[in-house]
Amino acid sequence: MGFPVVMRRRGRGVNRRPFRFAARRAILAGMYSQALNHQDTTGSGAEDPRFQARIDAEDRIEPNDAMPDGYRRTLIRQISQHAHSEVVGMLPEGNWITRAPSLRRKAALLAKVQDEGGHGLYLYAAAETLGVSREELVDQLLSGRAKYSSIFNYPTLSWADIGAIGWLVDGAAIMNQIPLCRCSFGPYARAMIRICKEESFHQRQGYEIMLTLCRGTAEQKAMAQDALDRWWWPCLMMFGPPDTQSNHSDSSMRWKIKRFANDALRQKFVDATVPQGHYLGLTFPDPDLHFDEAEGHWRFGAIDWDEFRRVLAGDGPCNKERLDARRKAHEDGAWVRAAAVAYAAKERAR
Amino acid sequence: MMPLWEVFIRSRNGLAHKHVGSVHAADATMALQAARDVYTRRGEGLSIWVVPSVAITASDPADRDTLFEPTGSKIYRHPTFYQVPDDVGHM
Q: Which of A151, A148, A158, A98 is nearest to A123 (CA)?
């Protein structure tokens, strides 16, 4: 995604840049590990106006460019949380790989989970261009300091959940991610372009699973309905808190990291998805859902934000299971990493 | 700590290798393998280069004007700078 190491090597040398931040490179990693979980206090007017002028002119910011600390911090937090979400997101679906109903479904699910691993890696690499190390990012996830999307703390109870995840979770993710392809930070935007191209298959394979179930036996259709009933509300929460309660929206919009507000994206998702659900012959678990003729939107009922906060804070159905699985995978892989490094050192010494 | 490698892929013969991203790997062989797994799941390439990131020296964005601005005034380097009568035909 960029040339992070070059950035680290620079720092020490030429210091002709106008924003005088080259000298702080050395302490970046430590600083961010502290800063990530605190709310940004940027936007106080301390920034160089030339930076905002570049953003306003739709210029892309690249890793070695001068940038305000808050911009860097916000991006590290957002990109790494996004990466963690991809990696943790492999777990609910991985649960069904060995039990997929056919070889075709199994091959597709394997490919989808591999994509998610790849997406996590593109994103970690993009975050690293900002001066944070991979080890630090992984540690933030495993120690529970970093967050990931709350959706992956829900269990996959039946095969229909794999359909619902592809159709709804990936559908919501695409809605969120398409505007990120135009994010002001180059490496993030480039990673998102790649990811969006690949996600389209995820959503279509999910919808195909739902369609097959809905055209099957009564029991199969009931499975699909049950999956929709359980996943619908958590999917609406994926877009984040309402605009009135969102902590990071203002500066992110100003910096063009984010292009649309949470509520607008959520509405766009509902408008796109409700007709797809009706085509399947399914009912959305929302008695207040209705079409607003005047505005041309599907209006939905109140979202249980207490549940969202509970799950995000660690009290969801699978939070512990997900983190335990990641920690075990990391620990079980430790000897492989150590062996590879030792072998490389030995080869170099020859 | 795993070294970082920059990955370049030639999407088809006749085109140059293009930077696509980075991977961490203990050595060049594993970096190639990781690059293949991470960046070519859909026939994106016919050839991969992996380069240790530390081997790349980049220009400083702050030097952009010093390095690149001088060419801005050298419009005589472009063919359209020169007048050729229409009668001469395409040149």
A: A148
Which residue, chain included where needed, has tokens 């063009």?
A256
- Yes or no, beta carbons of B60 and A118 under 8 Å apart: no
Q: Is A295 on the interface with B (CB under 8 A)?
A: no
What's chain B's average pLDDT?
A: 93
Alpha-carbon separation of residue A238 from A176, A199, A211, A267 (angstroms): 9, 16, 23, 12
- The complex scores an ipTM of 0.87
Optimal mutation site among B2, B9, B59, B60, interface A, most CBs of chain A within 10 A = B60
Inter-chain CB proximity B25 and A62 less than 8 Å: no
**For residue B57, what is the nearest residue in chain A, using CA coordinates?**
A6
- Reported as a pLDDT band with limits 50, 70 and 90, residue A213 is very high
CB of A290 less than 8 A from some CB of B: no
**CB distance A185 to A61 below 8 Å:** yes
Are A48 and A68 in contact by the 8 Å Cβ rule? The answer is yes
- State the average pLDDT over residues B13-42: 95
Q: What mean pLDDT, rounded, does chain A reach?
A: 87
**Torsional class of B76: left (φ above 0), alpha (ψ -120 to 50), beta (otherwise):** alpha
